[in-house]
Amino acid sequence: MTCSGLSAKHGQEMSELHIIENGQVVITEGIIEFVGSSSEKYPVEHPENYEIIDATGKAVLPGFIDSHTHFIFGGYREEEFSWRMKGDSYMSIMNRGGGIYSTVNATRKASFEELKSAGKTRLDRMLAMGVTTVEGKSGYGLDSETELKQLRVMKELDMEHPVSIVSTYMGAHAVPEGYSEEAYIDYMLREVMPVIRRENLAECCDIFCEKGVFGTAESKRFLLAAKNMGFKLKIHADEIVNTGGAELAAELCALSADHLLQASEKGIAALSESNTVATLLPCTAFSLKEDYAKGREMIDAGCAVALATDLNPGSCFTSSIPLTIALACIYMKLSPEEAITALTINAAAALGKADSIGSIDVGKKGHLIISSFSNYRFLTYHIGMNCVERTIV
Ligand SMILES: [Zn+2]
Question: Is the full-model pTM beyond 0.85?
Fold first, then answer.
């Protein structure tokens, strides 16, 4: 299936996968040059320079795009997971100085090479599950030095690893000790973000807009300033408490509003009328034993929904695409077709890249998956299993 399109698909359009039976794709120098039926003999110059891959009997689809992760971090929080299973909440662990702050300490201590080597291992696993582009956020340093270190690690990995990386500055992940919310936002805008722009270290900016973290008014001030500096916007919105994050994302024309477990009807309506993608992270709700975001209702309301793993060391330590698909279909009631759209063209749109990735269309990057089964329904039916036989980048 090609998932053909150049922008996010809303509502019912999410069910259209644009399937070509017995198809053929020609990729020249990394760019898709032809897609169509294999009965047409597409004339390439110098056929001796091409590798022919026979995918007879297999479904071919665009590479998956994991549009929300925090995959560069130091240390792990396996102990905290067991506390949570006993009933402690994410916010109560955070208020005890655990949670994100323990990752911040470990990431500050980690060397560039340690972060890079762990990041590479994580990218290898993603690639094996068909991920060809991943978004990675900073946000585990809070101070300028560590945030820049995280972003520079991602820049090097992007150059060296087959998986493409879209970097997001998320210094606004938590308020560091010794700062007020307002003073920390001023610090980011003054000290950190100009360097990121100058060195081209991140395309997007993100903020944890949440009660007790960054309020809606401060989030708006931060995001408007980021937009003026040339960043594209993303928001961790309405995850634990409804704070009007979805409405804010739509108002600011953010690329995406992410999480949305508590998004109100008004918030969902605002997203459906905007170009902001509703990015849902079912593995996080699963890991935190929370109710899932209203994926079905959002699509029925006409939203463009994307799915992502939210890989991070605290609330959701998994980069499993099969688990994401299973939870989205079983608990958020997405159809197999919608889940695939949510991981391809809509995820590309959530990164502002629907013109170059996310579908098998002429002119886009040659990022493909050959699945081990004859049709895409196995991706949902073969629960939690990796159905990717080969990832092509
Ligand atoms: Zn996140």
Answer: yes
